[in-house]
């Protein structure tokens, strides 16, 4: 499986169809979810990003190896870490699907393409 840095690079390269602020927000969500899977889920078992152009939705799904659901924690503002799922929660609708090997954490965000051409995200 790719490292967090490799996944950031793959995703970022495929978000050119979005306005830069929106691409930055979606990338931040993906980065936080990847970090959470590495830090609390035993690593990444699978990673998918989809763009539903007709509905204007971006979805990221990350499989990990822990059955424990992510927690949204009101982080101490003096701490450098610990607010990842709060960021995800603030920018997306998200949830968890349990599986035999762990779980899939998903997040969905609305999007608007910069142009009217059909666009797709191909990471994963």
Automatic annotation (TrEMBL):
InterPro entries per record: Anti-sigma-factor_SerPK (IPR050267), HATPase_C_sf (IPR036890)
CDD domains to which the protein is assigned, alphabetical: HATPase_RsbW-like (cd16936)
Name of this chain's protein: PAS/Protein phosphatase 2C-like protein
Species: Actinokineospora spheciospongiae
């Amino acid at each position: 499986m790719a490292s967090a840095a490799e996944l950031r690079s793959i995703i970022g390269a495929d978000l050119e169809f979005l306005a830069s602020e929106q691409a930055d927000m979606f990338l931040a969500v993906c980065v936080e979810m990847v970090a959470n899977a590495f830090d609390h889920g035993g690593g990444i078992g699978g990673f998918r990003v989809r763009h539903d152009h007709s509905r204007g939705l971006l979805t990221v799904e990350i499989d990990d190896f822990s059955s424990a659901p992510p927690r949204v924690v009101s982080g101490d503002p003096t701490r450098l870490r610990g607010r990842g799922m709060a960021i995800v929660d603030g920018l997306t609708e998200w949830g968890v699907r349990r599986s035999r090997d762990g779980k899939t954490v998903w997040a969905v965000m609305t999007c608007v393409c910069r142009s009217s051409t059909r666009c797709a995200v191909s990471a994963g």
